[in-house]
Amino acid sequence: MPTKSIHFGSDNYAGAHPAVIDAIVRANSGHVPGYGDDPITAELEARMREIFGPETEIYPVFNGTGANVVSLQAMLPRWGAALITASAHVNTDENAAPERVAGIKLLPQRSGDGRFDPAQIAPALADVMVPHSAEPLAVSFSNSTEFGTVHSLEQVAEITSTAHRHGLFVHCDGSRLANAAVALGTDLATITAGVDVISLGATKLGALGAEMIVVRNPDAVRGIDRLRKIDLQLASKQRFLSAQLLALYGGELWRELAGNANAQAARLAAALREVPGVSLYATTEANAVFATLPAGVADAVRERGWRFYDWPAEDAPGTVRLMTAWDTTDAAVDDFVADIAEIVGGGC
């Protein structure tokens, strides 16, 4: 089987950006206080307060699941629940960690394109039967979503205003928030206006292994510093996590890297539209492309060394999810589409 250097399975496949590696190397000097009491974390916190506001608190963690679990656990009491979309990562890809570890209830709501509909908040609250039902006290939405769609600024504003009006806090799973911001041509603060707590992604963007909880509203969380420890997300040598985050978010590198991923997804989608027999299952808004291939084509393409995942679409068998990353190249996109076109056309 041929070996490919770039794949379309996930932006997690991509390596760490050189700036991240350089930042880790620079941080690896001498003895420095642990658990966040270091100058790099202090610099990161100062930068995040410049971006998100002077009340902002930050909590670097190891991974996205950890960021979501700690965030929701700190936002909700034991009897609390979070309204989410059924397709949300916290519901489908975290092995029930928010419920198993955090001890809170997730209440999935229907969504055709991954976006959260704030009109579902009031009916969900009306269905609560005290003391028999978990009480919805937070909304958690993804931006961009698991379908690659992006909540617009207006949609975010409607979610946050509706939730707050009903006394609910708002959490954003922002594992690909940079991609969403670039797609809208905006910044990180504007795209999260009104959001109380953010799981800010970095690993998919080029970090070696680091994410960050950004608390814009300290009143929305309780005990988050202790919960980070309880949930195994407190790094003793935190400077190395903070160095990665500062490399990406200290300036505008995040925008450049997310911009490349989004641009390559647009290039990929446009090229696939020209292949006979191939159709797009969803609109490409960030760095995800959902394409429906003729029967047998996906497996044949994999035999040429490419890696990507099938997408369970009952109404469109043969649909695959294709993710682009910060390091995806024009050549990789063109070669990939050329192989698909050749196989669709009867090549082997």
Question: Could you explain how this protein is built, in words?
Answer:
The chain is α/β, with parallel strands linked by helices and 348 residues long. It is 39% helix and 15% strand. The protein is built from 14 helices and 11 strands. It has helices at 18-27, 39-52, 64-75, 89-92, 97-100, 121-126, 153-165, 177-184, 188-191, 224-230, 239-249, 253-273, 297-302, 330-344; strands at 57-61, 80-85, 105-109, 135-142, 169-174, 197-200, 211-215, 279-280, 288-292, 309-310, 319-323. The strands form 2 sheets. Strands 1-7-6-5-4-2-3 form a 7-stranded mixed beta sheet, sandwiched between helices. A hairpin with a 7-residue loop joins β8 and β9. The relative contact order is 0.17. The model has no long low-confidence stretch (mean pLDDT 96).
Which key features would you list for this structure?
14 helices, seven-stranded mixed beta sheet, 11 strands, 348 residues, globular, alpha/beta
Briefly characterize the structure.
The chain has helices spanning 18-27, 39-52, 64-75, 89-92, 97-100, 121-126, 153-165, 177-184, 188-191, 224-230, 239-249, 253-273, 297-302, 330-344; strands spanning 57-61, 80-85, 105-109, 135-142, 169-174, 197-200, 211-215, 279-280, 288-292, 309-310, 319-323.
